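Why do we care about 3D structure at all? Because function follows from shape, and shape follows, mostly, from sequence. That is the central idea of this module. The next example makes it concrete: a single protein chain, its amino acid sequence, and then its structure expressed as tokens.
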Amino acid sequence: RRLATLLDRPDLVGARDDLSVQLAELLTALGRAAEALDVLAGRSFQPWEGGEGRVLAAWDAAHLDLGRQALDGGDAAAGLGHATAALTPPQSLGEARHPLANTADLHLLLGDALDALSVVDPSRADEARDAWRTAADQQGDFEGMAVQEFSERTGASVLALRRLGRDDEARRLRDGLARYVQEESGHRATVDYFATSLPAMLLFAHDVQDDHDDRVRALRDQLAALDRHVAATASA
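And the structure:
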């Protein structure tokens, strides 16, 4: 319903950065990532209070979605293109990646695309392993203006470790994520001191506890996916 409302008012979306990035987020969430990239690439964004990192995150999410689709469809070159584009965002997004931000998911995609290309060009195999090492070694993240020990990108680091044959490290990182999820499951979320003014400024009202619980669910789903990957590998 929210997407339909935004699509029905292109005049308002075209006038506002916050509406444009909300449109892009919804398009990617509903399987229309190519359209999301059109929205993001079609304007020059300016930073705004409460929107820090959202434009870049939307850019990453759209390219990740399309890159994974490309790899699943056997188009490694397109997968590589999406990984590269995500890692080199245009200045028009109005944001630069924080030095502490985790890019394990992007480098995992990059490594997987290079690995697929190595079938016809063996020289790409070393590049693939370099990308996987970058993903594997990025543990911890910078989210919500704070350093986090685990994040939605931790699973990508676990997978990269497994691709490199560093199974013991992968197991320890996966188990650490499981403990973190268990601890966070009973946590009561509060509004960060530096964000106390945001509820009156945000485009759509939201509850910080709902946001926290959504993140915990996403991490729990990530754990389940990692465990399915191990089971599938063992039975292969």
